[in-house]
Amino acid sequence: MEEIDFKWPNGFFADGIHAGLRKKRLDMGWVVSEVPAQSAGVYTTNQFQAAPTKLTKETINKKHELQAIIMNSAVANSCTGIEGTENAHEEQALVASKLGIDKDLVGVASTGVIGIQLPMDKIKQGLAELQKTKNFKVTEAVLTTDTHSKTISVSFEVFGKTCTISGFCKGSGMIKPNMATMLGFVVTDAKVAGQKLQETLVELTNETFNQITVDGDTSTNDMVVVMANGQAMQDEPELSEGSEYEIFKAALKHVLGFLAKEIARDGEGATKLVEANVNGAHSKEDAQHVAKAIVGSNLVKAALFGEDANWGRIIDAIGSTNAKLKIDSVDIALNKTKIVEHSLGLDFDEEALKEKLKSDEIIIDVELNNGDFKGQAWGCDLTYKYVQINASYRS
Amino acid sequence: MEEIDFKWPNGFFADGIHAGLRKKRLDMGWVVSEVPAQSAGVYTTNQFQAAPTKLTKETINKKHELQAIIMNSAVANSCTGIEGTENAHEEQALVASKLGIDKDLVGVASTGVIGIQLPMDKIKQGLAELQKTKNFKVTEAVLTTDTHSKTISVSFEVFGKTCTISGFCKGSGMIKPNMATMLGFVVTDAKVAGQKLQETLVELTNETFNQITVDGDTSTNDMVVVMANGQAMQDEPELSEGSEYEIFKAALKHVLGFLAKEIARDGEGATKLVEANVNGAHSKEDAQHVAKAIVGSNLVKAALFGEDANWGRIIDAIGSTNAKLKIDSVDIALNKTKIVEHSLGLDFDEEALKEKLKSDEIIIDVELNNGDFKGQAWGCDLTYKYVQINASYRS
User: Fold this and answer.
1) Which CATH number fits domain B273-391: 1.20.1250.20, 3.40.350.10, 3.10.20.340, 3.40.50.300?
2) CA–CA distance from B247 to each of B207, B208, B236, B244 (Å)?
3) Lowest mean pLDDT: which of A297-306, B70-79, B185-194?
4) A272 SS3 class
5) Nearest CA in chain B to A351
6) CA pair distance A45, B185, nearest whole angstrom
7) In angstroms, what separates the C-alpha of B258 from chain A's closest C-alpha?
8) Along the 395 residues of chain A, how does pLDDT read in single tens digits?
9) Distance between CA B85 and CA B128 in Å, rounded?
10) Cys-Cys link to A150, which of A133, A262, B193, B365 (CB 3.0-4.6 A)?
11) Is A59 a catalytic residue?
12) Looking at the predicted structure, is the pLDDT value of residue B175 above 70?
């Protein structure tokens, strides 16, 4: 498996345009497969699930097949009641008729302001403009306050065929004025059954997208969708088990992990990516829970913004979980400098470590010495800019 | 029951002094009853419980009796290993011998920097200076970065006797450099059995101290201790049930609630007290969970600092809980202006509401329309100052 320049896998097309939902920037796009693709999705756990999120979930759950997904930024179509639900359904139907396919093969995704209805006239005009191209404009059209587009492609070989997995996402926390955030789309020309893809996506999401936090909020629109159209493996059997499947799974995990970290790194106001690596946990759940508690602590986040080796706060975040701990056996290192051993502070060169903490990546290694399980989580620092972004009046 | 000027109840004495743990400010003090007092305590759920917290818990759990509690600021005696445990025990023994009482009648409390040992020489000198006075210096001696001392006294009548409950606390979130926070002490001359007092304290804490959040962190030293010496009711029966007990319980709840709100209001960097009142919940737990999720959301906190009526974030915080919700039936009001009805945004005068949000108290009323249960929680806004305080290098 190797990272390659971003490209659309065999049999996938896309486009992005300016539909007038935003002043100038691209705000609408789609991804289309030339044939129905086995598909899987994971969705926000927020009880106020937006209309497009709910519709895409229902659609994928029918046959785990999609051929196209339409997406827009600026308007989240969340907390929009019956009208919002009808608009999502109409958009799905319009895309289906334009492509001449069943509406149950069309996914719908929106991100943007909560509580505003989709302007269907603009959506219709925009849809008329969308073409089946190989351009990357859709990766920009989904952005809201992200500072840059987030894309990755990897290639790998199975059964002697070279397959590609490409992914893009938008994120960066719930943002002003009241943004519904975090959309991820992954397309591949590998051949995988939808149900199997679903199981794998759920498993890998728990180790990637579910282990990032910018401010602990779960948006109403979060979703990650994977489409596999098999076009690079037409004469080959489906990937379903064994070493060939593991190659695919490793490549997919790499793509999901990369995109998740990109979202954390681009968290609003963030100046640093923070990675917590927890080892020696009593269970996988404990390891992931502890890692996420550390990167989720406002105190740890603010201290790292201040480049302060404030281990008391890391200990505090660990202890605030219900993970099984040996209270006197916790070791902590910051960017490879050990600062806590057996739960006691070590003497270390504050100034030298402060220098290391100027890095834009902070690695917190925690050894719980209470088992064999590992977990990771990613977040960012808490900055003045975060407060500024989130305090500023909707404008 | 009425609030009165702060005073020590009958048979309680106190003092506060400068033991040299801090540069200038008072840093050590005690509260002493002339007779053993029935006592109860609640303690941090953080797994890294500080030595004094652990010792006080063990001591109270023996007979639910205390006659004195010694306290210091500046040094939390947390994450201090065996030496820290021995120091806490020595301090307890020293207080007992100075007062000529059993050490099992002495509680110990510390707050301050995590990971530093108590300077026992200064503790011993300080202890020698402490007197049994009626001054209020101990209410200052426990403060760390609190902007002011937090005290309250109430009086009420039972069996024709006037009783007093007085409380003081320190708080304001986990603060630089790595502070162990939130100590609460309540003393009364009412007569209540320790076990009953313990049950009542646990019940009331769940509705007061456990419903405040400054930054979601639970410190290693948090504790609330109540001592009841019965000196105002010497010839009366113990309060244990019926209307007389309800009078006492209401007074105690008022004291605990007042102190909890004072901690939220004085949260680091805070400019506003935020109160969430949740009604119409399916259960008491749901109501309290939703209320706490709202005041705990960074996005809500930052928006309120910006005086932004950003209801999408409140909906989002509500939906992120696992409370039973009727998704289309949530109403929200900010400082009495209704902005959401049936989970849909209402048209409201943004400028007029923005004026109201300039208040230093923000009331968020939420009606879930899904049951008969209520819950409240208190927090504060998220400000530049919070980040500044928590980012600044330990100094």
Assistant:
1) 3.10.20.340
2) 17, 18, 15, 5
3) A297-306
4) coil
5) B393
6) 40
7) 25
8) 999 999 999 999 999 999 999 999 999 999 999 999 999 999 988 888 999 999 999 999 999 999 999 999 999 999 999 999 999 999 999 999 999 999 999 999 999 888 899 999 999 999 999 999 999 999 999 998 788 999 999 999 999 999 999 999 998 665 444 566 789 999 999 999 999 999 999 999 999 988 888 776 778 888 999 999 999 999 999 999 999 999 999 999 999 999 999 998 888 788 999 999 999 999 999 999 999 999 988 888 988 988 888 888 899 899 989 999 999 999 999 999 999 999 999 999 989 999 999 999 999 999 999 999 999 999 999 888 888 877 763 43
9) 21
10) A262
11) no
12) no
CA–CA gap between residue A248 and residue A259 (Å, rounded):
17
| Spatial CA neighbour of A30 closest among A137, A125, A122 | A137
Map residue B42 onto helix, strand or coil.
strand
Q: Which residue has the tokens 């959040």?
A: B213
Cβ neighbours around A305 below 10 Å, total: 26
The predicted structure's pLDDT at residue A216: 67
User: How far, in Å, CA of A280 to CA of A371, rounded?
Assistant: 4
Provide the phi-psi class of B9: left if phi over 0, else alpha when psi is between -120 and 50, else beta.
beta
Interface with B, mutate which of A320, A340, A343, A366 (most B CBs under 10 A): A320
What is the ipTM score, two decimals? Answer: 0.78
* Tokens (6 digits) for A81: 């009641």
Q: How many CB atoms lie within 10 A of CB B120?
A: 15
Cβ contact B17:B36 at 8 Å: no
Q: Which of B178, B302, B319 sits opposite A313 (nearest CB)?
A: B178
Rounded to two decimals, the pTM is 0.84
Nearest-Cα distance to chain A for B118, in Å, is 15
| Tokens representing residue A113 in the block | 């302001």
Q: Nearest C-alpha of chain B: how many angstroms from A255?
A: 27
Residue B177: what pLDDT?
45
Closest by Cβ to A178, choosing from B178, B180, B313 = B313
User: Please, are residues B76 and B181 in contact by the beta-carbon 8 Å criterion?
Assistant: no
Cβ density class B7-41: b for 16+ within 10 Å, e for less: ebbbbbbbbbbbbbbbeeebbbbbbbbeebbbbbb
Inspect the interface and report whether the beta carbons of B345 and A216 lie closer than 8 Å: no
For residues A79 and B346, is the Cβ–Cβ distance under 8 A? no
Q: Where in chain A is the domain with CATH 3.60.70.12?
A: 2-262
The burial of B82, by beta-carbon neighbours within 10 Å (0-12 exposed, 13-18 middle, 19 or more buried), is given as exposed
Q: Do A319 and B220 touch (CB under 8 A)?
A: yes
Q: How far apart are CA A363 and CA A340, in angstroms?
A: 14
d(CA B31, CA B16): 9
Contact A310 B178 (CB under 8 A): yes
Q: Is the dihedral of CA B364, B367, B368, B373 positive or negative?
A: positive
Whether residue B114 and residue A315 make contact (CB cut-off 8 A), yes or no, is yes
Q: Which of A53, A56, A181, A205 is catalytic?
A: A181
Residues of chain A with CATH 3.10.20.340: 273-391
- Dihedral, CA atoms, B380, A299, B294, A49, nearest 10 degrees? 150
CA B317 to chain centre: 24
E strands in A126-271: 150-158, 161-170, 179-180, 183-188, 223-228
Residue B8 gets which letter from DSSP?
Answer: P
Catalytic residue of the set B44, B59, B111, B181 = B181
Phi, psi for A162 (deg, rounded to 5): -90, 120
